[in-house]
From TrEMBL:
Entry keyword Coiled coil: yes
Chief location category: cytoplasm
Protein name (Swiss-Prot/TrEMBL): DEUP1 protein
GO cellular component: centriole; cytoplasm; deuterosome
Entry keyword set: Coiled coil, Cytoplasm
Coiled coil start-end: 99-126
One GO process term, biological-process aspect: de novo centriole assembly involved in multi-ciliated epithelial cell differentiation
Organism: Psilopogon haemacephalus
Cellular localization per UniProt: Cytoplasm
Superkingdom: Eukaryota
């Protein structure tokens, strides 16, 4: 009987350790989510900066047109303008792909978090069921122990009566 209680205690300790591990993993996931949110906020700031860069580029193009009319080296300035446009185009493309990658990553992390929440809920449900089973088993063992004690008491009474009867005989 003592071994049974010890086994149940060990099982409870194991489940408690599992629960702590799950809580730690939830905290880690929460930390990762906060990092992702910070990164997303930085991306939004970069997007605003990109918008102001586009405005500056438009102003530069207007000034370039004026300079082309006045300057003698029209071809050199046009080549420079083309280089700037190509660079901006590459930057925009790079920025767009980075945004798409971030969206995918956030989606993947959200899905992973959702799966882990489902796993935690399942584990909690199983733990609750096991706890109910353990309580039922403890109640059964307590009843059996009480019955055993009653039988021991009855045995001692009968033994005492037998001894008394033997002495009388």
């Amino acid at each position: 009987m003592e071994a049974g209680f010890s086994e149940m205690r060990n099982e409870l300790h194991l489940r408690d350790a599992l629960w702590r591990r799950i809580q730690l993993e939830c905290q880690q996931l929460h930390t990762e989510l906060l990092k992702i949110r910070e990164y997303k906020d930085r991306q939004e700031i970069q997007m605003k900066h990109q918008s102001s860069c586009v405005q500056l580029t438009e102003q530069l193009e207007n000034k370039s047109t004026e300079l082309l009319l006045l300057a003698q080296n029209q071809e050199c300035q046009q080549e420079e303008l083309n280089k700037i446009r190509n660079h901006l185009y590459r930057e925009e493309q790079s920025h767009c792909s980075e945004q798409e990658r971030m969206k995918t990553e956030i989606s993947d992390l959200t899905e992973e978090l959702h799966q882990k929440e489902i796993t935690i809920a399942t584990i909690m449900e199983k733990a609750s069921l096991l706890e109910k089973q353990l309580k039922m088993e403890l109640e059964m063992k307590d009843k059996l122990l009480a019955k055993q004690q009653l039988l021991d008491f009855q045995y001692k009474v009968i033994k005492s009566e037998n001894t008394h009867l033997k002495e009388m005989v």
